[in-house]
């Protein structure tokens, strides 16, 4: 499925990939990862791959982030999230970032985003979590616009998007994924 792209006249922008990932933002196979295990729930993941990229201006500042991954169902009752802890190639710029020239966007993340991603997953209601393995395979952050809170929101949005049977049809619906 192609990526969905939304924007408004206030500068807010979002991209959502369903059953696909942004190939130019994939993490290196050399990135170190660690697994975090959460209580799984009864939700059914309807997609195998999901990624979400968001640019949200507010006042003179903005938030930016991209997070995506691949999901594999398992027979257990846990949700294992495999998160990158070290993305060694900081020179890999993401040229297609929604932040455009306002930020220098690099593929990968910073160590503090690992905890934020886990905190976001923990905030998802257990009834809305699937059981299985979610491997974070793509990620991009900006020098200025990215913060742990953004990656916490993106992690929640990934879980919700994995389990939705429909797709967002507007910017408001795409942004609502972040508030889930």
Describe this structure in words.
The protein has 180 residues and is α+β, with helices and mostly antiparallel strands. The chain is built from three helices and eight strands. The chain has helices at residues 111-123, 148-163, 171-179, and strands at residues 4-7, 13-18, 32-39, 49-58, 61-73, 78-86, 105-107, 132-142. Strands 1, 2, 3, 4, 5, 6, 7 and 8 form an eight-stranded mixed β-sheet that branches. Helix 1 (111-123) packs across helix 2 (148-163) and helix 2 packs across helix 3 (171-179). The relative contact order is 0.26.
Query: Are there runs of 5+ residues with pLDDT below 50, and where?
Result: none
Number of E-type strands = 8
Distance between the termini: 23 Å
Q: How large a portion of the residues is in β-strands, by DSSP E?
A: 35-45%
Q: How many distinct helices?
A: 3
| Mean pLDDT over all positions | 91
Helix content: 10-25%
**Helix/strand/pairing class, anyone?**
alpha+beta
The ordered H/E elements are EEEEEEEHEHH
- Sheet with the most strands, sense and barrel status: 8 strands, mixed
What's the gyration radius in Å?
15 Å
Shape descriptor reads: globular
List keywords for this structure.
8 strands, 3 helices, alpha+beta, 21% helix, 180 residues, globular, 36% strand
Please give a quick description of this structure.
The protein has helices at residues 111-123, 148-163, 171-179; strands spanning 4-7, 13-18, 32-39, 49-58, 61-73, 78-86, 105-107, 132-142.
